[in-house]
Specification:
Nucleotidyltransferase, domain 5; alpha/beta; 40% helix; single chain
Amino acid sequence: MSEKPIFNVYCDESCHLENDGQPIMVLGAAWCPQDEARRIGAELRDIKARYNARGELKWAKVSASRLPFYIELVDWFLAEAPLHYRGLVVRNKQALNHDAFNQGDHDLFYYKMQFSLLSKILSPDSQYAIYLDIKDTQGRNKLKRLKDVLCNNVYDFTSEMVRHVQNVHSHEMEIMQVTDFLTGALAYRHRALSSNTAKVAVIEHLEKKLGRSLLTSTSLAEQKLNVFLFTPRSA
């Protein structure tokens, strides 16, 4: 019997805190076959070197002076067939009713959304190494809880499908930076921001290439750049 293919999944988030004053929360994940990860990371480093773009690729850094670099990144991502992205957007975050639906616990809601994001990526026919960008001092606890949620919900009690879940720093992994870039673009679009003309131009280019808006959900069959919109229920 042939071994199951292994995929690396790189997760990041934007506006994920409960009381940050933002109307949305975005969770994102980029993934690719594990045996393609090294090549894809090297390609991204080459693009950065050609544009003398030092340091991490981050959505927060997008500026007019480097617009050609970011436009090429969009084209590269769309052309890189083994590389995929899924984003989950929680709209009207202020309307969340944790008392009614999440036992009064924002963290419980956060893990429900992480599961919703990742469960549509995971398949019992494959194995996965999941990497999370370290955001805060709760990283270790979040790591264990997410792995428990994923394994229990797919009955993967022996961790055969989810091989491991690991915290990493985004500067250590190029593909994690792709997740940051696309998650940031998705959050910017759904926050209806427009003050940074370079960010607007990048989003417009991405939407033109996709032939659709980032403001709408896609079908699960959409594997390249999949978007799911979550709207809170009324109690």
